[in-house]
């Protein structure tokens, strides 16, 4: 279980805290949904939970272990909003192997199959994929690291209805094996599959 207790983040440059006394628990193999309007602190929360930002108050636990930002970088897999903008590899294989040159084919095939891309040749260019396929590749890039917690920032932003449906059905499958936190300002269809939903506004959970 990921346990967030009274988490606050107040960088010196901001007059107000960006995150204020956030507390919630996300159980293993559950999908949690954090819903809030633009500017409410959703992306900042994911940056903290990915270990990119050092919080200024509170505690984060994975099961009974208290976590530092270094721990969080190890256990979390963050898929940014519009992740396709950050693709660097010229092939799917290169994209998946970035920073993990020793990954074997079995693990690569497993990650691609988990997101419904098992039929694609590893030599395919990420740029030639559809929008929905690119989002699924971005998921595979994180899954291949086998994170304990998968963090998704607006996973269906900018996709049309049929591509959003692809992502929903992948998430429905992934949540059988992975612990997932999704942040979004448009919960819509995601609400139906979420095990827990929280609302965030002005850095506080309502
Ligand atoms: N490094 C920073 N320094 C100062 N202010 C920041 C910083 N990062 C975020 N903020 C502010 O914190 C607030 C929350 O931003 P955040 O991006 O987390 O919101 P969000 O809910 O993800 O919004 P969106 O849905 O538009 O991405 C905003 O008011 C933003 O301007």
Question: Could you explain the architecture of this structure?
Answer:
It is a single chain. The chain is an alpha/beta fold and 206 residues long. It has a single domain (30-54, 73-195), classed as P-loop containing nucleotide triphosphate hydrolases (Rossmann fold, 3-Layer(aba) Sandwich). The chain is 30% helix and 25% strand. The protein contains seven helices and ten strands. A six-stranded mixed sheet has the order 6-7-8-3-9-10, sandwiched between helices. Strands 2-1-4-5 form a four-stranded antiparallel sheet, with helices on one face. A hairpin with a 2-residue loop joins strand 4 (57-62) and strand 5 (65-66). The radius of gyration is 17 Å and the shape is globular. The chain starts with a strand and ends with a strand. Adenosine-5'-triphosphate binds at residues 11, 13-14, 18, 36, 38-44, 185.
Short description:
It is built from seven helices and ten strands.
Q: What's the total number of strands?
A: 10
The chain-level mean pLDDT equals 95
Give the CATH architecture.
3-Layer(aba) Sandwich
CATH topology: Rossmann fold
Strand arrangement, largest sheet?
Answer: 6-7-8-3-9-10
Distance between the termini: 21 Å
Bound molecules: adenosine-5'-triphosphate
- CATH homology superfamily: P-loop containing nucleotide triphosphate hydrolases
User: What fraction of the residues are assigned to beta strands by DSSP?
Assistant: 25-35%
By DSSP (H or I, 4+ residues per run), the number of helices equals 7
Structural class: alpha/beta
InterPro entries: AAA+_ATPase (IPR003593), ABC_transporter-like_ATP-bd (IPR003439), ABC_transporter-like_CS (IPR017871), ABC_transpr_CbiO/EcfA_su (IPR015856), ECF_ABC_transporter_ATP-bd (IPR050095), P-loop_NTPase (IPR027417)
GO molecular function, one term: ATP binding
Pfam families: ABC_tran (PF00005)
Protein name: ABC transporter ATP-binding protein
């Amino acid at each position: 279980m990921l346990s967030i207790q009274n988490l606050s983040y107040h960088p010196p440059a901001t007059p107000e805290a960006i995150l204020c006394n956030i507390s919630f628990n996300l159980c293993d193999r559950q999908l949690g949904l954090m819903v809030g309007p633009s500017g409410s602190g959703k992306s900042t929360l994911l940056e903290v939970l990915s270990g990119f930002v050092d919080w200024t108050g509170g505690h984060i636990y994975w099961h009974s272990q208290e976590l530092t930002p270094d721990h969080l970088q190890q256990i979390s897999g963050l898929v940014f909003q519009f992740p396709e903008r950050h693709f660097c590899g010229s092939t799917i294989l290169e994209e998946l192997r970035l920073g993990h040159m020793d990954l074997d084919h079995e693990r690569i095939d497993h990650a691609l199959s988990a997101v419904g891309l098992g039929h694609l040749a590893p030599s395919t260019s990420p740029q030639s994929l559809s929008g929905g396929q690119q989002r699924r590749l971005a998921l595979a890039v994180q899954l291949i690291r086998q994170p304990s917690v998968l963090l998704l920032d607006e996973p269906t932003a900018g996709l049309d209805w049929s591509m959003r449906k692809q992502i929903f059905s992948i998430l429905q499958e992934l949540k059988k094996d992975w612990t997932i936190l999704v942040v979004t300002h448009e919960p819509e269809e995601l609400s139906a599959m979420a095990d827990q939903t929280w609302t965030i506004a002005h850095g506080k959970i309502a």
